[in-house]
């Protein structure tokens, strides 16, 4: 008995819309921060501008993941295309990690070179605009990602948040630098600190995506919840061969239940349907369930 989730109709439209808004914002912010940083003498803002540019690349990756990941199942992809979302998430995390390493190197060079100039007031305005816009994009994208159960969207939301934090660090460093020349060193130091955070986020995102791509089982507590809910049905007399894996942030599960061998095929089918419904209600993010029904004595007789 198999159950499939049909909640994907129209799923990519909202995600694509917020991703497109993010892409437009990243284009504008990248140009403003890189140009403003160069003209206004702020290495932190220039680096932050390239961070926004890297955001643009992840917007494109996530958009492709949402579009192709929502395509209907076909003969070549009977489980759908949702792993494209997971792949997009992994690429997003990798870009974050690579950019974090680049930021550390760039900020380190600025610190040791000592070629620091007081930034202009325009740089402050750009940094404030970046913090506000990127934090808004994070909140909207993260909320939508949780609603659609899209890990790619959530990953992209964290990229917006990391950019907002980078802009905040630049804003603080620039503000202090305008107070006293000796505080100019805070600009590269702030970049290094934020880079560590960005790198940690990128590593975590990539690591999780890799685990899901190789069909790593969900956390033991999820398997235990499946077991508990299944045995909650009094007609289930045994349970074995529970398997589950993630696909695009949702779960595919299959399990074998044992029932009274005197039951009819129709009664066994009804029990399997009840188990599927109970598991779906319990977990909430089930993409596909397969419940195999067999009599209680089957394993004793050498059947799988």
Q: Total number of helical segments? A: 8
CATH architectural arrangement of the largest domain = Up-down Bundle
Sheet with most strands = 4 strands, mixed
Q: State the end-to-end CA separation.
A: 17 Å
Query: Helical amount among residues, as a percent range?
Result: 55-70%
The count of DSSP E runs of length 2 or more, i.e. the number of strands, is 4
What are the secondary-structure elements, in order, as H or E? EHHHHHHHEEHE
- The rounded Rg comes to 25 Å
Read across the widest sheet, the strand sequence of neighbours is 1-4-3-2
For this structure, the CATH topology of the largest domain is Alpha-lytic protease prodomain-like
Share of β-strand residues:
5-15%
Low-confidence stretches: 2-10
Structural class: alpha+beta
**What do we call the CATH homologous superfamily of the largest domain?**
Cation efflux protein transmembrane domain
Key traits:
single chain, 304 residues, alpha+beta, Alpha-lytic protease prodomain-like, Alpha-Beta Plaits, 4-stranded mixed β-sheet, 8 helices, 4 strands, disordered N terminus
Overview in brief:
The protein has 304 residues and is α+β, with helices and mostly antiparallel strands.
Describe the structure.
The protein is of the alpha+beta class. It has helices spanning 11-40, 43-69, 83-113, 121-148, 151-179, 186-213, 220-231, 265-283; strands at 2-4, 238-247, 250-259, 286-295. It has 2 domains: 2-213, Alpha-lytic protease prodomain-like (Up-down Bundle); 220-295, Alpha-Beta Plaits (2-Layer Sandwich). It has a 4-stranded mixed sheet, with helices on one face. Strand 2 and strand 3 (250-259) form a beta hairpin. Helix 3 (83-113) packs parallel to helix 5 (151-179), helix 3 packs antiparallel against helix 6 (186-213) and helix 5 packs antiparallel against helix 6 (186-213). It is elongated and about 85 Å long. The two termini are 17 Å apart. Mean pLDDT is 80; it is low at 2-10.
């Amino acid at each position: 008995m198999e159950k499939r989730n049909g909640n994907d109709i129209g799923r990519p439209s909202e995600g694509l819309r917020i991703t497109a808004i993010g892409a437009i914002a990243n284009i504008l912010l990248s140009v403003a921060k890189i140009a403003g940083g160069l003209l206004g003498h702020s290495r932190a803002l220039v680096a932050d501008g390239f961070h926004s540019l890297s955001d643009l690349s992840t917007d494109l990756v996530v958009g492709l993941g949402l579009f192709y990941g929502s395509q209907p199942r076909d003969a070549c992809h009977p489980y759908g295309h949702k792993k494209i979302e997971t792949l997009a998430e992994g690429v997003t995390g990798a870009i974050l990690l690579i950019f974090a390493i680049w930021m550390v190197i760039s900020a380190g060079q600025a610190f040791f070179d000592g070629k620091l100039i007081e930034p202009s007031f325009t740089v402050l305005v750009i940094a404030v605009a970046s913090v506000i816009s990127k934090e808004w994009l994070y909140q909207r994208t993260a909320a939508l990602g949780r609603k659609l159960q899209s890990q790619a969207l959530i990953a992209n939301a964290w990229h917006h948040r990391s950019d907002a934090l980078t802009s905040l660090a630049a804003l603080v460093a620039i503000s202090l630098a305008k107070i006293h020349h000796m505080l100019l060193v805070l600009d590269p130091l702030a970049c290094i600190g934020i880079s560590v955070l960005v790198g940690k986020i990128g590593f975590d995102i990539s690591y999780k995506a890799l685990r899901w791509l190789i069909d790593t089982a969900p956390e033991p507590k999820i398997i235990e919840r499946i077991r508990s809910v299944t045995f909650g049905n009094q007609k289930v007399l045994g349970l074995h061969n529970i398997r589950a894996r993630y696909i695009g942030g949702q779960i595919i599960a299959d399990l074998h239940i044992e029932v009274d061998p005197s039951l009819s095929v129709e009664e066994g089918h009804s029990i399997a349907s009840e188990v599927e419904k109970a598991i779906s209600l319990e977990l909430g993010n089930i993409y596909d369930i397969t419940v195999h029904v067999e009599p209680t004595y089957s394993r004793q007789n050498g059947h799988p």
